[in-house]
## 1
Amino acid sequence: METQFEREVREIVEKAKAGIDALERKVRESEQYMRDTGTPRSSLYEFALAMEAVLSSHDIMKGRDGWKECANGWLMAQMYRQFDALGMELRRSKEEFKLEYAMKQAVDVANFAMMIYDNLRTRTEPPDPYCF
């Protein structure tokens, strides 16, 4: 006989599996859209271009793909720092708000998230704990 705790755990696991299934369906739909049209959504494409422009501007100083040597915890701390800066800018008054600065902060947050994703996707062993 299943206890209440076991039933609750089973229900949570079932909901998680349903969420994963829904996410996988969305990924397949996005992949199909890409195959059908040959391009990502225009807003995604423009955002990716902005991300690449920032990354490329750092290549000379830090080397291409320099984040591969960074600990994900360090990258996450940098992402949170940029996220806080973005939040502060978005809370400014109309008179003080700087659109270009807010857009840059959004790109910086996304770049750090991409770096973490790339490290998770490609690493076979944990990195050194510090990034230099």
Note: The mean pLDDT is 86.
## 2
Amino acid sequence: MTCTRPEASQISDKFEEVQQLIHVRDTMYHSLQAQADVAHTGTSDPNLIEATMEQTGVVFYINQSKYILSFELDAKYIHSETLVVYDSIRPTKLYNRSYDAATDSTSIEFGSNLKMSRKSQDVISGNTINNCSVLAAFGKSNVERTRLNDVYDYFANSKDVLAPGMLLSGMSNHDWIKTRQEI
């Protein structure tokens, strides 16, 4: 059986898409392995923790502060989610969310530097279901203005955030970095 030129082109395009998905899978695996290594060793080395978070999370900058949003998830649950900010060389935890499979519940620890009332924390916790991020729950909650507003606005207004159905083909890592730098 021989392929016509359009069929060969489609096969080539699909092959490229599969190759990129394999790259994404491998990158995620290595990131999770790095995170597991840190968890296993129980390190308190801030440089190793930062490097691991950068490997497993999204690094972005708002008003000259470095933020790292890291998370672990599958099709049903967000198992963990952490947002830290570097206003200086030391990280400040804004929140840490974890899922407990035994109780099928999510707990969120908000950092004291977030300066959010206990009532607002409870509202956000109540809106954070197992497959909803803390930031998404924050976005639908009527709470006072905090640093989370800046982070939420960053993602809500960003052009290059991954969305369901978005094709990963056709954009190299270099193109992705260049696009992010233009924002």
Note: The chain is about 45% helix and 20% strand.
## 3
Amino acid sequence: MNTAKHETRVQNFYGTGIDGYHEYHNGYLNFGYWTVPGMRYEEAAENLIRLAGNTLKLRSTSCLLDVGCDMGAQDVFLAKAFRPYSIDAVDLTEKHVVRAKERARRYGVDSIKLRFCQASGTDLPFPDEYFTHALSVEAPEHFDTREDFFDEAYRVLAPGGILTCTDYSLGREPKNILERALVEITRRLWHVPRANVYGNAMFKEKLHSAGFTDVFIQDISASVIPGYYFEHRRWESMREMMKIRGLWKGVIAGFLIDWAVYTAYQTGLCEYILLRAEKPKEEKISRPPSPTGGGGYYTYNCLARFMIV
């Protein structure tokens, strides 16, 4: 696959209608974590990010990298709810980054503590061992390839650093031509490289190959996929998406993707997973350096080149 062409297609897919989003769904784009009957989408979306933050075990000394940050809603939430030492958030779609910076300013989050830039998940613009934690929510499936992202995440994490992702996994191999067609249609509509279509055993193998240990994968599909699917079948949601993204991308293509994912979930072909992996520890110190300010992209050296205890 031509990576540049693939990334352009992904940018075009997610960039359509961004100027019309405004505060729709509070800027969230994820599937949500639907754990309480009657949850609103915004509550479920925030609940998913809270789950990710808790899985990472974020704390005041954490230097977090968020890869595929969308319009920054999740990073504003993480900055306020977990108060990590710093967050660097990247997204391939330029319009997402512009919106994310606007959102952070609007919510009063310090630009030294929360910074955004446009970058590819397979070519991260950060030094080795720069972060204590790395996060990617519903983005690795798009990377060309996910395996390259795992390598990059390992590179930029400090010894003892933690990676957490929410992602889509092949629950089982397709049994017949109809199931193979369902998987292929979903993959193509959603701009997922063929190399990224595999199950949890392969996830673990690729994470171990990148160097990670203590790999944990949990299937949370039942609390994610149905809630998102039925939320977007509501007339109010379809009407808003048509206003924002147009009839094709907002309604028709959106429905086809949602239906394909939901159908694949119902038949056991698709799982929505939460994964956590750790980079082996090598050294520890007990105190972080302090930010020096100044606003430059690397105005301070993140404590992540050490491992905080």
Note: The chain has nine helices and seven strands.
